[in-house]
Amino acid sequence: MLKNENMAYWCVIRNGKLLLENGGLPLCLSEQLVCSTITKRIIGYFGSLPVYWLVEESGFDDANFFNLRTLLGCDSALFALAGRAIQLAYMMQSQRFCCHCGHGMQLDTQVLAMHCSDCDSIHYPRVSPCVIVAVRKGKQLLLAQHPRHKTGMYTVIAGFIEPGETAEQCVAREVLEETGITVKNIRYFGSQPWAFPSNLMLGFTADYAGGEIKPDYEELTDAMWATAEQLPEVAPVGTIARQLIDSALMLNDDNHAH
User: Fold this and answer.
1) Which of 126, 147, 197, 225 would be a feasible disulfide site paired with 140, CB 3.0-4.6 Å?
2) What's phi and psi for 196, nearest 5 deg?
3) What secondary structure does DSSP assign to the chain, as a single string?
4) For every one of its 258 residues, what pLDDT tens digit does the chain have, with 9 covering 90 and above?
5) 140 to each of 6, 41, 231, how far by Cα in Å?
6) pTM to 2 decimals?
């Protein structure tokens, strides 16, 4: 019989994808994994159980590895830890060379960061801050459709914060640039780590101030005002985009499923 205190969740990464078993992270003893666990690093706890991260190059078929989005329906805390593993693997791939001296770097033995043995500098994971905003006009919500969403899904406006810009300034700029709409009463809503590949989504709500919808067709395929009664397919449950949409339209997850 397995001792529960030795059980752990495993975030095994290959080429930016996660090893999943029956749609979830493997929950097992280290010796039950068919790959080496020598390089494992603890990245947190889910409940009382440790969560380990390791980069794996052999031992499993590629068909067992899935995009992080596959886990969107799981507990948000476990999803965030899986995202941390994805971001750490991305750090190892994208920060292989020291930006100070150009020397090759390795994962540090003490902290979750890259270490340059030549100049002894430590380089932590780079996280890009983004904003995402639900803009309300009475009972209507501003939604946009992006070319990358092949299913025709609509979502709220989002974009990267530029140097020297506050998050609130970014909200107003992105909405204006992408849709031609001006906003007011910008308010912080919440945040979500978003490991695609290494972002932090800062959620906001805002009120319509003026303008007519004029989509930037280099960024969007469509933009529209929608009501709860006439809602297209929207971002999936588990995303901060969906939280913003549900909150802005005062919906719950049982009111609509897409």
Assistant:
1) 225
2) -130, 65
3) ---GGG-EEEEEEETTEEE-BTTB--EE-GGGSSS--TT-EEEEEETTEEEEEEE--SSS-GGGEE-GGGGTTS-HHHHHHHHHHHHHHHHHHH--B-TTT--B-EE-SSSSSEE-TTT--EEPPP-EEEEEEEEEETTEEEEEE-TT-TT--EE-EEEEPPTT--HHHHHHHHHHHHHS-EEEEEEEEEEEEETTTTEEEEEEEEEEEE------TTT-SEEEEEBTTB--SBPPTTSHHHHHHHHHTT--TTT---
4) 344 557 999 999 999 999 999 999 999 988 888 778 888 999 999 999 999 999 887 788 899 999 999 999 899 999 999 999 999 999 999 999 999 999 999 999 999 999 999 999 999 999 999 999 999 999 999 999 998 877 789 999 999 999 999 999 999 999 999 999 999 999 999 999 999 889 999 999 999 999 999 999 999 999 999 999 999 999 999 999 999 999 999 865 444 433
5) 51, 46, 10
6) 0.87
Counted residue by residue, the chain has a size of: 258
